[in-house]
Design goal:
Layout lengths: L9 H17 L3 H19 L9 E6 L4 E11 L11 E3 H7 L8 E5 L2 H35 L3 E9 L6 E5 L2 E5 L15 E8 L14 E3 L4 H10 L1 H4 L3 E9 L3 E8 L6 H6 L4 H9 L4 E6 L4 H8 L7 E6 L6 E6 L4 H5 L4 H10 L2 E6 L25 H21 L2
Parallel strand pairs: 2-3, 11-12, 14-15
Antiparallel strand pairs: 1-2, 2-4, 5-6, 5-8, 6-7, 8-9, 10-11, 13-14
Length: 412
């Protein structure tokens, strides 16, 4: 029977070709994948040859550049076979000198592993280790990539939609990510091939070896998606001329954003709305027609609350509880503005409360009584006392000021 003609390196040619294809598909360095294979084979051989993890007898060399794949075991040269002979670790001098005539007893020689033996071991034991190594490399790469996307809005392509659950599979930078139904805008129907913007709110910034449940949390309902969409549409927001100070949102229905201009010559509201409402319309189109109210931010809480309750006109606002942990106020509106201020099912008032960080009690002018304007005293822990030294007083004053200004941005 004629022997099948083979070419040196043919057995491993496909290995390197497939490795390069896999690296390109996953976006992972081919050297990293090669290292995972090397490590898996080494561990597999140590197990099958009964070596300890700390024993350096197994040598696996995968040279991607030169397409070389060598597997060998370092064996100690002994003079003759005795009752304690370990063929996995030892080789007699006579056999060793067939490999290298200069060897002496006590030396170590690199003995190539028989190809057939290697393939049998690899097929039996190394397969799962290699797969695990690839998964680990992919998770590590995803963790590094996702870390760059933390708190950002990115474009994603819908690749699959589950009819029963409504869960959608998205592709972000060649990686599949799950978008649960709860994170989709109420009422929207996603279709395969559709490109949507999602906000990345959950990212594993630090990769842990063996972590199997790394996930990327993406959302179309997160309130900060609104901020990122306006940044994309408004150059003034992107460059910092106009700031979005706070956001509140009822996904699928309505949102409010509070904006502030750092340049007296730039109109914050006009920048967000755009010529002929082009910018705000682009944002609402992306979020399936969800209405967005743009209001002016103010460091004066009473004025800020008035703005937050728009489109209703507010006659008067009184802060009835100034304590940072229980902020509350009374907002007085003309009788014909009461329904507008409260909104459908209380939505306008709720969004204004979330935007400002204050519990808002809205009263019609005809129903106001003097008791409505009773003010709860500021808790002593927020007051400066005569016993406080100058440094403590300054610290407390700074802390109180910071609480008042920053609360709207931190309101949930």
């Amino acid at each position: 029977m004629a022997k099948r003609k083979t070419t040196k390196g043919e057995d491993y040619g496909n290995l390197f070709d497939n490795l390069e294809k896999l690296a390109e598909e996953k976006g992972i360095s081919v050297d990293i994948l090669a290292e995972k294979i090397r490590s898996a084979i080494e561990r597999s051989l140590k197990t099958n040859l009964h070596f300890g993890d700390d024993e350096d007898y197994v040598v696996v060399d995968i040279d991607v550049k030169n397409r070389r794949f060598d597997v060998a075991v370092l064996k100690e040269v002994i003079e003759v076979v005795d009752t304690l002979y370990e063929p996995e670790k030892e080789i007699v001098l006579e056999e060793a000198r067939k490999i290298d005539p200069t060897l002496e007893v006590g030396d170590h020689v690199r003995c190539p592993i028989d190809t057939k033996m290697f393939k049998r071991i690899a097929a039996k034991n190394a397969k799962d280790l290699i797969r695990q190594g690839f998964s680990t490399a992919e998770r590590q790469r995803l963790s590094e990539i996702w870390g760059q996307y933390q708190d950002e809005a990115v474009s994603a392509v819908v690749t699959k939609v589950e009819p029963k659950t409504g869960f959608a599979t998205l592709e972000i930078n060649h990686n599949e990510v799950m978008l649960p139904r709860a994170e989709q805008i109420p009422g929207e129907t996603l279709e395969v091939g559709q490109v949507v913007k999602v906000y990345i709110s959950g990212v594993s910034k630090e990769f842990k070896e063996g972590e199997k449940n790394q996930t990327l949390k993406v959302s179309r309902t997160d309130k900060w998606l609104i901020k990122r969409l306006f940044e994309l549409e408004c150059p003034e927001i992107y460059d910092g001329t106009v700031e979005i100070k706070a956001v509140s949102r009822a996904p699928g229905s309505r949102s409010k954003i509070a904006v502030w201009s750092n340049d007296p010559n730039v109109d914050a509201l006009g920048a967000c709305i755009g010529p002929q409402k082009s910018r705000i319309n682009a944002v609402t189109k992306e979020i399936k027609g969800e209405k967005v109210d743009v209001v002016l931010y103010s460091e004066d809480p009473e004025e800020f609350i008035k703005q937050a309750l728009k489109p209703a006109e507010v006659s008067k606002v009184v802060i009835t509880n100034p304590n940072p942990d229980k902020r509350a106020c009374k907002a007085v509106v003309p009788d014909n503005q009461l329904s507008l201020a409260i909104g459908n099912k209380g939505q306008n008032a709720w969004l204004a409360a979330k935007l400002t960080g204050y519990k808002i009690d809205i009263k019609a002018e005809s129903t106001v009584t003097p008791e409505d304007f009773e003010v709860v005293p500021l808790d002593p822990k927020y007051l400066n006392t005569e016993e406080d030294n100058t440094e403590s007083a300054e610290t407390a004053e700074t802390a109180e000021s910071t609480e008042t200004v920053e609360a709207p941005a931190n309101a949930e």
